[in-house]
Write a structure and sequence with these properties.
This protein is α/β, with parallel strands linked by helices. Helices cover about 35% and strands about 20% of the residues. It has one domain: Class I glutamine amidotransferase (GATase) domain (Rossmann fold). The strands form three sheets. Strands 5-2-1-6-7-11-10 form a seven-stranded mixed beta sheet, sandwiched between helices. A two-stranded antiparallel ribbon has the order 3-4.
């Protein structure tokens, strides 16, 4: 089995659990399989430390210029997404990565980045409950789902705010590797699946 590349986008003021939750899910699944399933890595606009929400400094593994091509791309949220929306090179990288990725996932306001990259047109999507209207403005052809933890369109999967990214990530693990693998990961994390 070929290892899958799991890329997590980082940016200043990213919500910590938005990226750390999915990182933990994919990394634990990989660990429980003797690191045979995935390469999980972070990507940022530049290869320099990112200052996440509340001052956490994180060192990305790659910049968008030298990152391996992702099989699964994860776009977290946080107030920093508003700056990302103005970074044409990052939006272009997300759009180009989505052309070949098996799945593109967003957590919280990461859905705004997907909308800016025109990846939500004609789809259903969710995001943090405080930004439903903002997402609708960016993606007028998208049906906003307000009462689901995550929304699976096939390639594109969006989740609600912060902790919902863990539920979405476990869902993707189940799709890729089966229910037993997802449940084993959740049990290891002492996380109760919904």
């Amino acid at each position: 089995m070929t290892k899958k590349n799991i890329a997590i986008l980082l940016f200043d003021d990213v919500e910590v659990l938005d990226f750390a939750g999915p990182f933990e899910v994919f990394s634990v699944t990989n660990e429980l399989a003797d690191y045979s399933l995935m390469d999980v890595y972070s990507v940022a606009r530049e290869n320099k430390p990112v200052i996440a929400r509340n001052g956490l400094s994180v060192n990305p593994d790659y910049s968008i210029k030298d990152a391996p091509t992702p099989d699964i791309l994860i776009i977290p949220g946080g107030s920093g997404t508003r700056s990302v929306l103005k970074q044409d090179n990052v939006i272009s990288w997300v759009s180009a990565s989505a052309q070949t990725a098996e799945n593109v996932l967003s957590v919280c306001t990461g859905a705004l980045v997907l909308a800016k990259a025109a990846l939500l047109n004609g789809l259903k999507a969710t995001t943090h409950h405080e930004v439903f209207s903002e997402l609708q403005e960016l993606a007028p052809d998208t049906e906003i789902i307000k009462d689901e933890r995550f929304v699976d369109n096939g390639q594109i999967i969006t989740s609600g705010g912060i902790s919902a990214g863990i539920d979405m990530s476990l869902h993707v693990i189940e799709l890729l590797y089966g229910k037993a693998s997802a449940n084993q990961t959740a049990e290891y994390m002492e996380y109760r699946r919904i």
